């Protein structure tokens, strides 16, 4: 099984970005934790991060052509603004789990809207970096298949 771990804007700044909300772990720390977990699960993981909406759209479409079996997706702020990301996920039909490090349900009003959620098989939020491994487990167990 091949899973794309896709991260949106500002997630490359983990460890620096609002540590009280996102913790002190870096993006490299997050990738290493996911790699270690994926190895235990026998899952191949690919990583992509961009601050640009169009690049994220391209990555979703490329995942389709590359035969990716699932996507773990933290769209960052684009969660609340991008119908284009929703449309891309719907177009490719790859089982996707939406992930948020913080509990967006307990944050600002504008964070209560998730456009991508309608195309996802599950949402994991508020569990820090561990939310990514939970999302990986959901996909590895065949959610949406």
Low-confidence stretches: none
Shape: globular
| Adjacency order of strands in the biggest sheet | 2-1-3-4-5
What oligomeric assembly is this protein in? single chain
How much is the average pLDDT? 92
Q: Report on the biggest sheet.
A: 5 strands, parallel
Strand content: 15-25%
**Fraction of residues in helices?**
25-40%
User: How large is the radius of gyration?
Assistant: 14 Å
Instruction: Tell me the total number of β-strands.
Output: 5
Order of helices and strands: EHHEHEHEEH
Sheet/helix structural class: alpha/beta
Could you describe the 3D structure shown?
The protein is an alpha/beta fold and 145 residues long. The protein contains five helices and five strands; from the N terminus they run E-H-H-E-H-E-H-E-E-H. A five-stranded parallel β-sheet has the order 2-1-3-4-5, sandwiched between helices. Helix 4 links the parallel strand 3 and strand 4. The longest helix has 15 residues. The protein is globular and about 35 Å long. The two termini are 12 Å apart.
């Amino acid at each position: 099984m091949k899973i794309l771990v896709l991260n949106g804007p500002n997630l490359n700044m983990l460890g620096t970005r609002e540590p009280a909300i996102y913790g002190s772990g870096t993006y490299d720390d997050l990738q290493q934790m996911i790699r270690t977990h994926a190895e235990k699960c026998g899952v191949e993981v690919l990583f992509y991060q961009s601050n640009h909406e169009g690049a994220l759209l391209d990555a979703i479409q490329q995942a389709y052509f590359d035969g990716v079996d699932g996507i773990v997706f933290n769209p960052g702020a684009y969660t609340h603004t991008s119908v284009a990301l929703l449309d891309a996920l719907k177009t490719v039909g790859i089982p996707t789990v939406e992930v948020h490090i913080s509990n967006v349900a307990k944050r600002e009003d504008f964070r209560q809207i998730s456009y991508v959620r309608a195309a996802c098989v599950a949402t994991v939020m508020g569990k820090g970096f561990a939310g990514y491994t939970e999302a990986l487990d959901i996909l590895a167990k065949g959610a949406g298949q």
